[in-house]
Amino acid sequence: MRNIKLVEVRSEIAAGTRGASLGIDALKIASLDKTSDFFTRFDPINVPDANNFLWRGNKHPNAKYIDGVYQVLRNVHNTIESLRMDKIFPIVLAGDHSTAAGTIMGIKAANPDKRLGVIWIDAHADLHTPFTTPSGNMHGMPLAMCIQTDNLDCQVNEPGEDTLQYWEKIKKIGGDSPKINAEDIVFISVRDTEEPEDYLINKHGIRNFETAEVRQKGVAQIAKEALEQLKDCDQIYISFDVDSLDSSISVGTGTPVPDGLTVEEALQLNTELIKDKRVCCWEIVEVNPTLDSENLMAENAFDILEATTKSLVDNF
């Protein structure tokens, strides 16, 4: 277990609803309810958040709390870079999905010469920028940060100068170059996108395995095809957003969307994908117990976390 570290990121400033910072503790409560010793087996690292920015009011309508998001992403980048340089496998438990950009930046900084692929299991594409976002919520922007796009072809907003200074600084965390190629992103169950995101998906030919395709081909085949899609990558990072689950299950998350995965499909998918020796980091995000009843989302999410970690340990 020495080579696996839990990384806890209680950031929620980039989400549209409050409460995602409580998701990690909800997972811990779920583990107690299931009498699991999971959280005693790994030493956690707690990455400092910037949730105190929420009290200051938002000065950046097209990229809410971007000043705080910048701080958190740097903190996550530094933590992940140092773990990966020591060849440690981070299992990241995070609040809102924006922090995934810091994770990707850290992985890349530790091994700049290795080509990094991303498997993004999510209801959303998270390819917005301050120029295209309909909401200003930055948990919809992490992949755009990592491919260093502004997507000006689809511009609808005029972000302020202060906002753009932070946006430029964020894109350059871990080095001033794209951390991943857009072609090296694979989506699974993405189903709630806006036109600017569809534009980038089509432009770069990003593969999306829709929920219906998962049902039709079966989870094992989808895992195989997703990994095959990234055959030219040296490393793979898997990010699992619980809103990839169907909205009948994923009540305890900020942006539930119908027509998603079942818990069993998500569990099988993650346990299968993590067997690939190129996978170097796995992450679960967006559990929000304040939107839930009986902590159900966290209990389902914990089952997936525990099973995926067991699969990793068994194949390490």
From TrEMBL:
GO terms for biological process: arginine metabolic process. Its cofactor is Mn(2+). Keywords: Arginine metabolism, Hydrolase, Manganese, Metal-binding. The keyword Hydrolase applies. Its EC number is 3.5.3.1. Belongs to the arginase family. This is Arginase.
